[in-house]
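User: Thanks for the earlier help. One more: Four and a half LIM domains protein 2-like. Can you show the sequence and predicted structure together?

Assistant: Of course, both are below.
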Amino acid sequence: MTERYDCTDCSESLYGQKYILKEENPYCIKCYESLFSHNCEVCQKLIACTSKDLSYKDRHWHSDCFLCIKCSRSLEDRPFATKDDMLMCTDCYSNEYSSKCHACLKTIMPGSKKMEHKGNSWHENCFTCNRCQQPIGTRSFIQKDASNYCLPCYEKQFALQCIQCKKPITTGGVNYRDQPWHKECFVCIGCKQQLAGQRFTSRDDFAYCFDCFCNLFAKKCAYCTTSISGLGGSKYISFEQRQWHNSCFNCKKCSVSLVGRGFLTCKDDIFCPDCGKDF
C-alpha cells in the first residue's frame, strides 16, 4: 500500500499536484499562499508564490508595483530611498530632499558622505581649506569670513604671535601694552606666576605681581616694617625719608592717630604735641 503524502494544512493529497516545502513540511499552493504569502503594498493583491516578492523593512511588493512614487520608474534593479514610507529613486529623492553642496552647489546624493557645519553641507571632497585646498575631513578647523581653514593654515594667515614665545595664539590670550601674549606666557618677572586676572604692575617694562613688586620696590613702613605699596589709591605719610601707613602713624606714647595733626619727633619716634612736652 502506497504511503500518503498530504498537505500539512488541509490534508488533501498532493500526489499529481504542485506543492511547496516549507521547513520540510509540504503545502498545497492554495494553503501555502493563504498561510505565508503577502499582500502587495500598492495594489493590495496577494503576491502569488509563482510571482517575485520584493521586500523592504517587512513590506512587500509585486515587481511591477515596486516603482518610484514620483517618476514611476521600476526600482527593482536600481538604488532607492524612502521618505515617509514612500519609495523614490535616488534622482527624485535628491531633487526633492537632498542637501546642496555649499561649495559646488550640486546635490549631495543619498548614501554619499557629507560634511555639515552651521546649517551648511558639503561633499566630503568639497569641504576643503580655503588656503591649502586640502580636504578638512574630521580635522579641527576655524571658520573666518564664511571660509574654512585648517588650523595650520589659519595660524599662518591670521593668528597673532605671542610676543614672548613667538608662537601663534589660537585661543584666548592677553593684550598688554598693545602686544599679544599667551596667558601662560604673561607671567611675573619675579615669581613666574601667571598674571592674567591678577593684580599686577610694571617697572622698567617688566610686569610684576603685587607681592613681588612690593618686596622689590615698595617703601617700608617705619613702624610695622611691612611694604607700603601705594597701589590702588592707598594712602601713606612721608616725613624726612621715612614713611608710615596711615594706620601706623600714631603717637608713640598714647597711640592717638597723628594723621592730619601736628606732631613732634624724638630720634625715631613720633609724639602728639601733648606727649611730646615731656621730651
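User: Great, one quick takeaway?

Assistant: The longest strand covers residues 19-22.
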